[in-house]
Amino acid sequence: MSKTRIVIIGGGFAGAFAAKHLRKRIDKETKIELINDTNYFVFQPLLPEVVSGTLNASDAVTPLRHMFSGIRVRMAEVRSINFDGRTLNIVQGTKKIPQTVQYDQLVLAMGQKANLSILPGFEDHSFPLKNVADAHALRNHIIECLEHADITENKKLKKRLLTFIVAGAGFSGVETVGEISEMLAKTIKHYPNLSAQDINCMLVQLDKRILPELTEKLASYAHEKLSKRGIKIYVDTAIDAATATSAILGNGKRIFTATLITTIGNGPTELVKSLPLELKWGKIQTDEFLRVKGLENVWAIGDSALIPIQGLGNLEYVPPTAQFAVREAGCVANNIYAFMHQEQLNEFFYKPKGLLASIGNYSAVADLFGLRISGFFAWVIWRAFYIAMLPKFFTKVRVAFSWLLDFFAPRNIVQIQNKEQVSSCKYMHYLQGDVLFRPGQICDGLYTVVTGRLESRTVRRQGEDFVRIIKAGEHWGEREIAGDFETVSTLTALEDTKVLVLKRDVFNKLRESIPAMNKYFSQIDDHRNKIKIAH
Ligand SMILES: Cc1cc2nc3c(=O)[nH]c(=O)nc-3n(C[C@H](O)[C@H](O)[C@H](O)COP(=O)(O)OP(=O)(O)OC[C@H]3O[C@@H](n4cnc5c(N)ncnc54)[C@H](O)[C@@H]3O)c2cc1C
């Protein structure tokens, strides 16, 4: 007789804890397999601390293979699901080899992904914070801003580099702005040309108040504490768009910044979008037993699921938090067991014992068993709670040790970054009047106008300025990047303009390898040289 197979997609809070509970609950004859696209579990609530350098990136993750025994862990990406045939199509390995996996019971726990397409320019000019790579990229970027601000003599640029905006003031937004502000306060002394007054941290929230998950009193305590530390908080304010140089608020105000961090806008993963299911708000709808509507052997938990709940204030659906995901994991394991043994299924219900949010600077706000506490004591409880929740003893030890060390050691401001990994092809959005280049700068790539217009103006010692208008489909920078020349012109956006930037080394490689492309740019070089001689 073939063995029953339970397959879990997703190794986050929901999927990893479901695997643990299932292995304890279900007999060893039943095969349990967990499929995740990375080989580690991410403790997302610690990501703001990875950004600020309190923790190392490796502290916030645990190898999935260390977390369980008796479970097959497969690092692969699930591309599609055939519910009728009870199979998954996956791709695995460096060559992305397609495979088919069969299941009898399936748990969907794919979480959500940052949806940056919700607002213009966010995809190209904002930083999400969903995984370790995001945290690492943001941390490197903040250090880059400090390094650059310390050496520039351009005051406007310095101000922009030292303005940090966080969009969204839920738990993750508040924790992120608190951590970044603390990091900046602790590191600024290492930059002799910068002072605390130069730093501008902002939190922008669409709601009427920050931390809507907490009581008004605790939220206003957090608001007051953050404000006292110099963080500017804008409530009842939307961010409408992002450009290469600024964030545009709903009231039309333009804030020049190099760092816009978004904690708003989550959406379904590609897999969830591809499923033949009716999604609501981008989520998989389940019944009260966590079973996907219309499918008796498929279950959905965690952030990717929309789970109805009753008796939790006026909430209709379970909130997308780690606390809930872990409880759903326990419930789904019990219900799969019950289903396999033809027993009664249990409705999912959980009432959180408390809510905690760290606001940085050894301070937190907490609502525990109805008791509202704030300040240092709340912060100690918050840390103890996280240590208790972290999987595996050595992860706990590593995190506790890093926290202890942070009391005494200076913050690490090492920027470990492979320059080649910085996006080699990206869109940039500029508003009318934005200056992209000034004479004397080194051009970093080929700038092709997608929409809008740019003006390249070269001031001559004698005679009129040489002006070239670069329209949609035309490009700028090919001469400069070919020879590592300093730019001689000022490049300005004549109107709101979207540009595709192809980094210098990629452009040069393409030009070298594609004869038609080389011919095209060689002709342009010849043409420009003739104009130069004529002038
Ligand atoms: C910065 C931040 C701070 C937070 N702070 C808190 C907090 O203080 N308290 C709290 O309770 N919650 C907090 N949360 C929310 C909490 O982390 C999430 O609710 C929780 O992680 C959801 O768990 P999940 O398992 O549903 O999804 P995830 O943890 O996102 O896991 C989903 C997994 O599925 C994988 N996956 C997706 N698609 C596929 C596929 N096709 N094939 C294979 N694998 C796939 C993903 O790679 C991922 O590993 C925070 C979140 C963030 C981002």
What does this protein look like?
The protein has a 7-stranded mixed sheet. The N and C termini lie far apart (87 Å). Helix 5 (132-151) packs antiparallel against helix 6 (155-161). It contains 15 helices and 33 strands. Helix content is 33%, strand content 27%. The protein has 535 residues and is of the alpha/beta class. It has 3 domains: 5-112 and 268-340, FAD/NAD(P)-binding domain (3-Layer(bba) Sandwich); 116-265 and 355-391, 3-Layer(bba) Sandwich (FAD/NAD(P)-binding domain); 425-534, Jelly Rolls (Sandwich). The mean pLDDT is 92. The structure holds flavin-adenine dinucleotide. Flavin-adenine dinucleotide binds at residues 9-15, 35-38, 44-45, 47-48, 77-78, 109-111, 129-130, 171-172, 269, 271, 302-304, 320-323, 325. The site of flavin-adenine dinucleotide (FAD) has 34 residues, from helix 1, strand 2, helix 2, strand 5 and helix 7.
Essential attributes:
535 residues; alpha/beta; FAD/NAD(P)-binding domain; Jelly Rolls; 3 domains; five-stranded parallel sheet; binds flavin-adenine dinucleotide
Largest sheet: 7 strands, mixed
Straight-line distance between termini: 87 Å
The whole-number mean of residue pLDDT values reads 92
| Widest sheet: strand ordering | 7-6-5-2-1-8-21
Bound molecules: flavin-adenine dinucleotide
**Spans with pLDDT under 50 lasting ≥5 residues?**
none
Shape: globular
**How many distinct beta strands?**
33
Number of helices: 15
Just name the CATH architecture of the largest domain. 3-Layer(bba) Sandwich
Count of structural domains: 3
Q: What is the CATH C level class of the largest domain, in words?
A: Alpha Beta
The fraction of residues in strands falls at 25-35%
| Coarse structural class | alpha/beta
CATH topology of the largest domain: FAD/NAD(P)-binding domain
| Radius of gyration over C-alpha positions, nearest whole angstrom | 26 Å
Helix content: 25-40%
